[in-house]
């Protein structure tokens, strides 16, 4: 038997028979934002319903490693339902195929458990049962809680000037403290992580945390009363020497289906009443978002408009401004609220100095009607305050100054802070940098002016009714 041998020269000369070597394409993954959808549901019938309340937009990439990308799946789709009655969750994970494309296979379930923890239910049938087995969860939580406020609501606070009407229901605010805080808050953590920007869970073992619950009582079809949590606020009490306490609002959230109906404002108003009735030193808010600060300013400006101890001082400032043709920098400070006014407001209304100063600007704006006639002078006051907050009390002499300095690391978040010596201007600040500073300051002034205008219009509309 013979074997046919092909010479090496023949195999090389024939291009069609050359061996080809290829490389598989590395898996690029898919962003969590592109494959995960979250729905909030209040009944078993809402699950899989096209009318379910969808949470969007939510940045889900932050909960996944590798810049929020999920690897190893083709046709991945994740649908999550959150029970708004018991706060359990269920995730339906489907995909066409799964394979390691060079970046491994992401453990999706583990990543979701980092968000939902023990609230994540494995089986869909078990999740659907929570709507009946846990239907009285909220009522059980507040059964031994302290009732702070009760009112019949039409879907919005009567003090919120809300135009949206709904079926009348009982709305109550409860306060819980101590051990029950941890039991409830552990179920609320996923919603806090998903819906409150930059928020971290509170330390439920610290007894100085209190949870304020906004609860709605409704009757179902069987005439059984059901309690729904519309929103909550987490407040921390800390000691102020020598014998007082301060209240600091750390987190506040109105559940998405109930937002823009005045409930958030109502909750803030209740906190104000608690601060006054319990005579704390003041009530502050930890890093409020713009939307929350807007509501807070509207509330406080309305309170200050009827606060008699500051009216004479306010009228005097407004009168002087109306008589001014131009405003010298040396006289800027006399338009700020007096120390006695600041203290009166803190003692009586529990509004801290920083908040009061922002309200004061709006009160002056309202007093200068028609504002267009005095806009140049008024804007000079606002500009001076913004500059003092950002650059320093005396930016043209000795003192701290902040200068934006572009770097390769981050073009928007890089800066230098320096202090001039002996009243001499620093050579660090070049003409180019000064121009950048002035441009950034003007943007802040424009933003502040727009906020003042919106709040003034809102408050004026309420008072005209």
From TrEMBL:
Molecular function GO labels: histone acetyltransferase activity
Compositionally biased tracts (Polar residues): 1-12
Cellular component annotations (GO), alphabetically ordered: chromosome, telomeric region; cytoplasm; nucleus
Enzyme Commission number(s) from the entry: 2.3.1.48
GO biological process, one term: subtelomeric heterochromatin formation
Record's catalysed reaction(s): L-lysyl-[protein] + acetyl-CoA = N(6)-acetyl-L-lysyl-[protein] + CoA + H(+)
Domain N-acetyltransferase: from-to ranges: 228-282
The keyword Cytoplasm belongs to this UniProt entry's keyword annotation: yes
Superkingdom, natural source: Eukaryota
Keyword Acyltransferase among UniProt keywords: yes
Subcellular location: Cytoplasm; Nucleus
Primary location group: cytoplasm
Residues covered by region (Disordered): 1-23
All copies of domain Histone acetyl transferase HAT1 N-terminal, residue ranges: 30-197
SUPFAM superfamilies: Acyl-CoA N-acyltransferases (Nat)
Pfam families in alphabetical order: Acetyltransf_1, Hat1_N
UniProt KW keywords: Acyltransferase, Cytoplasm, Nucleus, Transferase
InterPro entries: Acyl_CoA_acyltransferase, GNAT_dom, Hat1_N, Hat1_N_sf, Hist_AcTrfase_B-typ_cat-su
Family per similarity comment: Belongs to the HAT1 family.
Protein name, per record: histone acetyltransferase
Species in which this protein is naturally found: Solanum verrucosum
Lineage: Eukaryota, Viridiplantae, Streptophyta, Embryophyta, Tracheophyta
